[in-house]
Amino acid sequence: MAAVLVLGAVAGCGGGDDGAADPTPPRREDTVPAPVPLAEGAWRPEPGVAWHIQYSGELIVPPDVAVVDLDMEDTDAAVIDRLHARDVRVVCYISAGSWEPYRSDADEFPDDLLGEAYVGFEDERWLDVRSPALRPLLTARIEAAAEKGCDAVDPDNVNGFENETGFPLTRADQVAFDRWLFDEVHRAGLAVGLKNGLSLVDELIDHVDFQVNEECIEQGGCAPLAAFVEAGKPVWSIEYAGDPDAVCTEAAELGFATVIKDLALGPGGHACPVGQ
């Protein structure tokens, strides 16, 4: 949540040497708690490698892929072990900002956490990220990811404040929640990424290790992600439309590792040459 700057009281007037100087007010960035760092020995994602994302169908990981993004709950630990044996790192998807009725823990979410339907996925509901009741539920998911052997977490729907959630979420509410979430993943010894949330890059880039983006090339909104490239943090992007040659040319110019997929994120698709 946005920090409040506390300004020092104004000292008494006078031009003599007996008046103490006013203390310098803290800068805004000094009032924000430092991010929890990625643990020593944890996997630190690097740019310049091919990646694959798949949430449906029989898992088929191309032979040149070094990173794969899979649904955490639907992926068995044995699958992760087999991928590790191939030197493939596993990023595990969870939804952090929406309730999905088909998840094994869905009944544990109190009704007052559930807001409006998620447009386009009408069985899902936005979550009230201000509520302390949400945090232990997400911590349990993060711990499950660590126990399965995931190397990183890809938490989705971390920009609810820009949507009709049914809650009066502010930007400050969202930033406070997202920072807590990313720090919690680091506490579990896993890397963590910012999923979409382009308007929040400045506030959150120091708390995350990579970016997973959907359709910024198609929508012409990739500019904020230059900060990740400049910071040496990978941008893994997904496009669902467009001419592959044109998409891959732009992805290379931007420095992204980009795949063109179907909306179901099934097997197959087109992987662009790695741009970072």
Order of helices and strands: EEHEEEEHEHEHEHHEHEE
**If you compute it from the alpha carbons, what radius of gyration comes out, rounded to the nearest whole angstrom?**
21 Å
How many helices? The count is 7
Task: Assign an overall shape.
Answer: globular
Structural class: alpha/beta
Rounded to the nearest angstrom, the distance between the terminal CA atoms is 33 Å
Number of strands: 12
Specify the CATH homologous superfamily: Aldolase class I
Mean pLDDT score:
90
Order of strands in the sheet with most strands:
1-2-3-7-8-9-10-11-12
Instruction: Point out poorly predicted stretches.
Output: 1-29
Largest sheet: 9 strands, mixed
Number of domains: 1
- CATH topology value: TIM Barrel
Roughly how much helix do the residues carry, as a percent range? Answer: 10-25%
Structural features, described:
The protein has 7 helices and 12 strands. The protein is α/β, with parallel strands linked by helices. The chain has a 9-stranded mixed beta sheet with strand order 1-2-3-7-8-9-10-11-12. A 3-stranded antiparallel beta sheet has the order 4-6-5, with no helix packed on it. The protein is globular. Residues 1-29 have low confidence and may be disordered.
